[in-house]
Known about the structure:
Rossmann fold, seven-stranded parallel sheet, 8 helices, globular
Amino acid sequence: MELRLDGQVAIVTGSSMGIGKAIARTFGQAGARVVVNGHDPARAHAAAAELRAEGIDAYSVVADVAQAADIARLFEAVDQHWGPVDVLVNNAGTNAIGPSEQLALGEWQRTLDLNLTGPFLCAQEAARRMIPRGRGVIINISSILGETGLAQRAAYCSSKHGLNGLTKVLAVEWAARGIRVHALNPAYIATALDTGDQESGGYTAADIERRTPLGRYGAVQEVANTALFLASDASSYMTGSRVDVDGGWLAYGGW
């Protein structure tokens, strides 16, 4: 089973660090021309330069994918640089942790804008380019919290449940047009973002290791490997799937 994306244009949102950067690198190593995206110019350009130094064909576009105008500009820039997108990974996201009765409307709205509305608008832009060619893959990086709930994550859980529902609808609607749509649900992955979440979320690394049947955090490369499988022809009979990369978290119902 050869996992290759030779010559394909792949946009990975939120790919200047963490899971997104690992996906961009893995896709590039598989032959894709990778669009690195982030809202911070210095970080986005540095990430693309790093990938180019590794021999990967990488191009950076700064855009906030919570903003409709930025999304349109992102896809137009890629059209001009490389042509239409073949693979879209909706990875950019944020969290809001705190008591639900105290959750500010602005935090709620920003979380849904980035985690749900942004992926929908990006998927629309991608599909408009994929439909005429009769092919394409869209991968939504969701979460185990798109399948279950956790206290003090009202906005995040709502956005990820919505993203998994959106995945099902788009997969069914666009299947006959050659577009496959997946949701990838990571559990707790070792990233800089998790370090901050531990402080506001009231948990420790030891808590996650105890709760996870495999006994450890996931690695960004493990998520990236799964994304490559979903983007490649190796998963050609899969669409509308929610694929859990969670160390057994959702399967476990014990103490």
